Structures
1.
Amino acid sequence: MTRGERKTLWLGLAFISPWIIGFLVFTLYPLAASIYYSFCDYDVISKPVWIGALNYKDMVTDSVFWKSLGNTFYFAALSLPLSLIVALLIAVLLNNPVVGRPAFRTFFFLPSLVPQVAIAMIWLWIFNGKFGLLNYALKWFGLDGPNWLADENWTKPSLVLTSLWGVGGSVVIYLAALQDVSRELYESAEIDGASAFTKLWHITIPMISPVIYFNLIMGIIGALQVFSGPYIMFGGGGPNRSALFYAVYLYENAFSYFQMGYACAMAWVLFLIILFLTWAATSSTRKHVYYAGE
Amino acid sequence: MISKTRLPILFCALLAAVAVATFSAGCSKQPNDRTPDGRIIVQYWEKWTGFESDAMQAIVDDFNASQDKIWVEKLTVSAIDRKMMLATAGGNPPDIAGLWAFSVNNYAEKSALTPLDKMLEKAGITRDHYIPVYWDLCEMHGHMWALPSTPASLALHWNKKMFRDAGLDPERPPRTIAELDAMAEKLTVVSVTRNGKKIRVHYPDLTPEEKEKKDFDLLQLGYVPSEPGWWNALWGYWFGGSIWDGDRTLTANSPENVAAMTWFQSYPLKYGLNNIQTFGSSFGNPSSPQSPFLAGQIAMVLQGVWMYNFIDKYSPEMEWGAAAFPSVDAEKLPNVTVAEGDVLVIPRGARHPEEAFEFIKYVNTQGPMEKLCLGQRKFSPLATMSDDFIRKHPNPYIKTFIELAKSPNARTVPRMSVWLIYSDEMGVAFGQVGTLLTTPQAALDDVQRRTQWKFDRVMRRWDLVKEDRMKEWSQ
């Protein structure tokens, strides 16, 4: 490295130093500290005491840990495919040249601007077993709706429905991708007499597959970390802890019971799970994701 | 012009200066803690809002006017237990915090509070000055960690009009659990379909088949233990049970606790789980006008001394009474109640503990304490209360609550640091039993196993630090 190069390097580092310092102080240090704390008995107030892998061992025997993990997977397995499909369908519909298209796009996007707390409060009333709008609507069809929030079999489906209400963000991303699909492909397909479904299946979906993939990965991360909805709607986990999600249990351990060491260990386990699932999703979809130019 | 070599150095220096300035402003250990006229400012965090906050503010104003050395600044803080803990961990706590008494045990054991023993001794404040149970709420591991601000005790509240309508003597509340259950049946009104017509009948008038089938809608309930459900973990007290042996062993699944839970489960079994759930989903928050007791949907409820405030505010016309909540045996277990309350603590690392204690001491003298408790319409935790205080008190049953607090059967949440975990586990167990998912015995065995496991863990940690802590606290 010549003197000049070194100078350039220093200059460059100096210019990005606000970010570097921020990263070191607010990201890397807390990350490293949380690894250390995950091997400690740490109650926030007093000095952490090293206890080896005990927090991780305890997790294996902690039935609530497994329940919260199971709930989270259940929720993710239901909400992830549903929200991917629903968002895609809405985006495809909104991509059609209909009257008032901008207005419709706004309507579908609006719910994702509502704060999580407000969403939770609204849905608490919609799901109310006696006065809820949902059960009222079901009555028109002669159906006796369940007690959504009090029946442990229905708490997670309620939360899935709530999450579907917020797909506006993904819809916008899909819409952007749909605009990019070349018209020529559709035209040639039409000349060959392809139906609407064939065009969707053989042109649209392959062409926007990178965006579907993106939404899938973000969806996995989001679904496994879901917190505010269940925390507000079900507080301590709802009937029989059926709505106690991983992030909520982690939060309880950290800030209610002040078992920060255990909470840190849980956070790292969740990180590893997400890492593994992301890797699995990436390697299993590699062949199906099409990037123009490859 | 600045040379090119100097530029990065200059830039780094500038950045460092900005960083130092920001940090020193944000995390300063010594903010200005004096008023312009030289008084020491004591930061006081309190959870109350509304009229309860106003009552304390009046005391703070009185204190500030009574002397010229200390200035107490009261700040209303939500989720105060968590915020105080994090502020203490961050080394920048308030000088005084108003906690719930049940937080004291956990926070004391974690050494998040300042022991008050020396200051109490100097001020000559002893247990004799208090209704004993409120003093005991502030003690943990042989040290005092707090002094009471406002106390509470729990009692049965009943709706006299509903009693009259059901043909019961409105002046005679139930004295045993068995009586409570029988009266509750008489006070329960259902709508049932007979010969194709919906009719309204009292529960005892249902035929045995109708009771068995439970094919009715609840219109009014005499009583249900799950409303408001705030003290479910403590139901064992009314059955002569306890939560632990006072040392290291929990007794969650003792026969008394199982009996209490079996009684709890008898309600959904008798009236039908689905019926109770559907009726229950129309209940509003217990402190709102939609509270089932205030709305006349439920005739009896276990509530604290504060209930008067909500009756007065939302349903002033209501004819009501308050008495000891019945226990399983009126002779052997009279006047069972849970005593709880609000307390004032000095977090560890507070800058002005001596000045903070001056204020706490002031609140705990008879005059200010009675003014505060009258403002919040509670009773005083002090052993002596002036006749004037009782006479002026708007709650017609205030004496009942005081008697209950003084009763030998006044119990508190257990002074163990895993109380919160225990109470959460019990909450889940009561949820399972209340929805008929499991039996009381199985649910309580589960609570016992899980919580004891966590308790052992906490005690293992405690054993490691016990000696140092005890030494530190005695200094």
2.
Amino acid sequence: MNTTFVERKQITEEITADNTQLSKQTKISVKDLNLFYGDKQALYDVSINIKEKEVTALIGPSGCGKSTFLRTLNRMNDLIDSVKINGEIIIDGDDIYRSNDVIKLRTKVGMVFQKPNLFPMSIYDNVAYGPRMQGIKNKSKLNKIVEESLRGAAIWDEVKDRLKSSALGLSGGQQQRVCIARAIAMKPDIILMDEPTSALDPISTLKVEELITTMKNDYTIVIVTHNMQQAARVSDRTAFFLSGEIIEFDETSKIFSMPNDQRTEDYVTGRFG
Amino acid sequence: MVVRENFENSLQELQTKMTEMGELAISSLEKAFTAFKTQDIELALRVIEEDNEIDDLEEEINQFAIWLTVKEQPVARDLRKIIGAIKISSEIERIADFGVNIAKSAIKIGSEHSLISLTQLESMKDACINMLQKALQSFIDENIVLAKEVGDMDDVVDEYSNETYKQLTTYLSEHPEETNQLVQLLFINRYLERTADHITNIAESAAYLIKGRRYDLN
């Protein structure tokens, strides 16, 4: 077969792109996960493979189980007495519900919440809080972690001259990025985000979205969002939840352009929910 | 309450505008061909004049589609529908221009003794109108069968066109004194063949709306 230079270049690029896809390992493997709040079942046989260094978005109407699912990934649901879970969640080869080291798990799997939840202390102390709890006392080491984390959360330039001021004096958008810095300071592999921009203004939202896009070079990110345009903008793959089940999980471009399931189509086009 | 009722109504309005534009283009082709066949210069001039209306409607559809995109942030089928409207209105505009071209050829031929009987041009025109109706219906009803039929009919138009080309060029070599009219007939042959191609593009847009992937019907 004779191929032109342009065709050959295109073929090479396609193969490279395929290889990049293949080389991405599964970071979180969930199999047949069921979750009950007392007698009420909230998740039904959820199975999903989340790839490393990708952004995976979880979408679906209120009460569909997406936040419940997110919280299973770092065992946040352990705090609720009536919760029963069966099935398995494997992160880096370990079933997280068979291991008792929740501290280690939550170091590896950081979390950012809907509303910024900084401690009433300085910006510096907020970011240094986790590393200090881990026993890091060395001042220069802490300085380095704080700076790197704030840079990683794209907020360093805005706060570098006021590190000792109260974190609560920052705007909502800035506080949320400091929360992300605080999560990064623990050097996690995975960051869970539960509607991280729902309390922010549009510009702060875009800044956090930009940040998420750059962070995926270093972290595996799982984000719950009600904002479908946000899911389309920031994520590589999207899972659509409905009534505790995953209806469809695919590349984000597929979910928002040509979903397989009519229920997904109805949801992303705003016909229900 | 129907969720996104306003958006549904707007999409409906968009389709109504497209249907209206399609009807105007069909009328333009019909009138241009009648003007050519009956050698009616007045009618030909009217076709040229009325083309503005189609151009305006294309602009209106584009503006409406852009505003809907901004306002509703459409995805999936909604997005394909709006993109389809933009692409199809541009194809219809081009088809109507071929109507104008045929009208101009009719004016150039004037009152010379008509050689239309040598050609398959009328069959081509009829096929084109039938195709355009089917292609638009395919988009509006999301009917893939109609889109495929349009693709098949394009092959028939191509055959008519090749046949007409051969007949006209053969006649030309024997009757060089008829060159003026024969050149115009060859042009009209080309315009109708291209019209069918543009209609096939409409059917491809319909197929994309329905199936979410590209089909080559040409």
